[in-house]
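Weekly sync, protein design subgroup
Attendees: M.S., D.O., the rotation student, P.L. (late)

Item 1: inverse folding check
M.S. brought a backbone from last month's batch and wanted to see whether the design step gives back something sensible before we order anything. D.O. pointed out we never logged the input encoding, so this time it goes straight into the notes. Structure tokens as presented (360 positions):
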């Protein structure tokens, strides 16, 4: 009587030949091409009149469903789940880009109407209808933000150096706590604080550009402290110990070893901090106000800034010249976006130029 053959009685080599160790795989460009197809389909629906949000959601859901089903048949359950998670992450990223793209498109479409030489060479002095420009607001923005950076960067950098290199105990913990609190305060609170401070010395109704610089520095300092602190933490302790082993004083080690090593990250953080505050409106509306003429003295009377100029042009537009006011407001917003983009590009360039050189 013969006994049935089990898998344990078979030769191991025969078992390996019978069991597939690998599954098939999708073509290399399957996922990108599928995504591109659904993006184009969503764009076609948008051009046909559907809403941008609906088109984006339909494209994301369709891409995820198709790539998961396809991978399930070809790559098995494990490969399909990996494709599914990748598709969800990719779709979420693309959906997050939709508001940004919409904002940029809207600002460009409306801002190009007055984005000309007259806009950058003229002020609003004596202009009640068409014409005029934002020369006074552009220069005011650069002056106020520049002074704020001159005040914020040294204070923030020295605070970060103290916290990383010297700070211990309750004082360091208290400084860290207050930096965290300042990072989250609303910008309007900074404007009200600075106005109340200067009102004590100059009386009610005081407005000048330096007040706006102080308000912006209140917002900039915690950002500079946080970014510089993180960069200083990345400096290896071995570099400090090697310097101390050569009998180099601590202050000289910080200046000659620590800061040059972290220079790229610190410069990037400072540039991004400037980009963060250059478009603030609420604190400048309270502390600086607005003027129609050129005023480049930050210690004398009101100044204009691009953010406040855009707000006032939009909010105070009269009925007989509404379109002209709206065009100037959109052009000022477009100018601010271009300045912020330029600052981000400068931050990338600084990070690449001053990054520590490593051996390949």
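Designed sequence read out in the meeting:
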């Amino acid at each position: 009587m013969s006994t049935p053959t089990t898998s344990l009685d078979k030769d191991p080599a025969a078992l390996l030949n019978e069991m597939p160790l690998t599954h098939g795989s999708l073509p290399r460009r399957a996922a990108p091409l599928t995504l591109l197809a659904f993006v184009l389909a969503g764009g076609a629906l948008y051009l046909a009149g559907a809403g941008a949000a609906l088109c984006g959601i339909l494209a994301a859901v369709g891409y995820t469903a198709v790539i998961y089903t396809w991978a399930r048949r070809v790559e098995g359950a494990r490969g399909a789940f990996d494709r599914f998670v990748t598709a969800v992450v990719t779709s979420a990223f693309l959906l997050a880009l939709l508001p940004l793209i919409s904002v940029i498109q809207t600002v460009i479409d409306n801002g190009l109407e007055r984005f000309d030489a007259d806009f950058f060479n003229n002020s609003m002095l004596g202009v009640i209808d068409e014409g005029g420009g934002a020369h006074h607001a552009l220069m005011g923005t650069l002056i106020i933000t520049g002074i704020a950076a001159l005040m914020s960067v040294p204070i923030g950098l020295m605070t970060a150096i103290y916290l990383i290199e010297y700070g211990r105990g309750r004082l360091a913990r208290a400084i860290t706590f207050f930096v965290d609190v300042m990072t989250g305060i609303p910008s309007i609170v900074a404007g009200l604080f600075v106005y109340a401070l200067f009102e004590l010395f100059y009386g009610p109704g005081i407005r000048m550009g330096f007040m706006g610089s102080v308000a912006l520095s209140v917002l900039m300092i915690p950002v500079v402290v946080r970014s510089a602190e993180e960069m200083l933490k990345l400096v290896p302790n071995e570099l400090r110990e090697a310097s101390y082993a050569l009998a180099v004083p601590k202050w000289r080690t910080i200046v000659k070893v620590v800061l040059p090593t972290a220079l790229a990250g610190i410069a990037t953080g400072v540039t991004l901090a400037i980009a963060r505050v250059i478009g603030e409106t609420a604190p400048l509306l309270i502390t600086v106000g607005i003027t129609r003429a050129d005023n480049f003295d930050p210690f004398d009377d009101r100044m204009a800034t691009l953010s406040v100029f855009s707000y006032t042009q939009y909010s105070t537009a009269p009925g007989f010249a509404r379109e002209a006011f709206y065009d100037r407001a959109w052009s000022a917003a477009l100018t601010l976006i271009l300045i912020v983009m330029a600052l981000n590009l400068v931050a990338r360039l600084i990070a690449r130029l001053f990054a520590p050189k490593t051996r390949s």
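Discussion: Residues 119-353 form a domain with the MetI-like fold fold (CATH 1.10.3720.10). The CA atoms of residues 74 and 289 lie 65 Å apart.
Action: P.L. to compare against the previous round before Friday.
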